[in-house]
Amino acid sequence: VESALGLDIGGTKLAAGVVAPDGEVRSFAATATHREQGPAAGIARLFDLARKVCAEAGVAPADLVSTGIGCGGPLDRDAGMLREPLHLPGWRDVPVTALAERELGPPATLDNDGTAAALGEHRFGAGRGVDNLVYLTVSTGIGGGLVLRGQPYRGASGNAGELGHVTVERGGRRCRGCGRRGCLEAYASGTSIAERAVEAGVLCGQPTAADVVAAVRAGDPGATALWDSTVDAMVCGVASIVNAFDPELVVIGGGVSRAGELLFDPLRAGLRAELPDVRARVVPALGGDRVGVVGAAAIAFEER
Ligand SMILES: [Zn+2]
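^ thats the input. predicted complex w/ zinc ion below
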């Protein structure tokens, strides 16, 4: 049976993979986006990556059933056009599906990367067999996606599921992603965790969220207090999201989810305390680093 090509356009990383209809990743590769070099150079690198993974999987691009492309918003799904996504300054009105079809051959579909990842987890990952699923990716920023009644939910303009911009503190920290104040992303994204650690004097230099997690594991009291407040923001945000959608499952992926039980145990406990009657389970994504590519391929299979 024919495979699909999944392409993921991130702010720091481009990824591509050939994915079988059962979700198996037949080949995978990633490279730096270098977004500052502009869309023409970035898109050319993306298609080079696509040809490379096709060669690794032993298929010609033209033999693939279709191409799915995941990217952060805002974007125009119907037009297949990037509308200067927040994470790609200057990438304005890029007709990425038309370019992909011209360069690679198969019909191409563009979708929000959070929606794509949610669908990937629903079809092939932690959410198999579930009707209603919320996906959150906690990495540089916080993205999200919704699968409701077994189908991706996109909203009126195709940009639903921006779950990182749920307010957890009115008038709070400025959000780098959207410019408003007090978003979940402004507290619990990897970038925000690292910034808050520096502001609190817990770590110095240019730490990452992984450095904060390591300090928590080492028993550092300042890092532990900072992590507790981070988890508290997650509890607040996820509780609001669960109240809004009543999903069976909340799937959490992204780099910060690698904190594992350090994140999931207190998050589950906090949700049980705040929403005692809610049965939504909170689980890690199964897609790992490949969730974007698998999700983009899931979109491609939907569109075939
Ligand atoms: Zn925001």
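The pocket of zinc ion is lined by residues 165, 175, 177-178, 180, 183, 185 (CB under 6 Å).
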